[in-house]
Amino acid sequence: MRKQQGFSLIELLIVVAIIGTLAAIAVPAYTAQKDKSDVAAAMASLKSLLAGATLAVHEGQTVASYVTGLDGTASTTLVINGIGTIQDATAGNVPGIKIVISDGTFSGKDIKYSQAGTIWKCDYDKTITGVTIDGCSARP
Hints:
Layout: H1 9-58, H2 63-71, E1 77-80, E2 84-88, E3 96-101, E4 110-116, E5 119-125, E6 136-139
Parallel strand pairs: 5-6
Antiparallel strand pairs: 1-2, 2-3, 3-4, 4-5
Helix pairs in contact: 1-2
């Protein structure tokens, strides 16, 4: 008769404990990286529209009409799947454009550019934390 071989209960428990420990380390790290990538994607999408928004303002149009013309609908918001919604953020006579993030930890938070003279100034919702947004300041 042959001797049966296999893993003991203790060996299996040790493997499960190791896998659990690795998962406990990996999941928060993954979440943090996903949050950073969400913000980076939102910033890239918004920055890509600044030149067009500047041109629209210099031609006497509004940022709202520029955003409306982006997808050919009558909406002043442009949904970018998986990232957020581009919206007009004009306040008074100061042209502005913003993106409201639609996914992840920062869902509902926004990053906004407002025109100050000939440059665009960036600010963001102060509850976007743990992510560096170069050239932007937190808005109260």
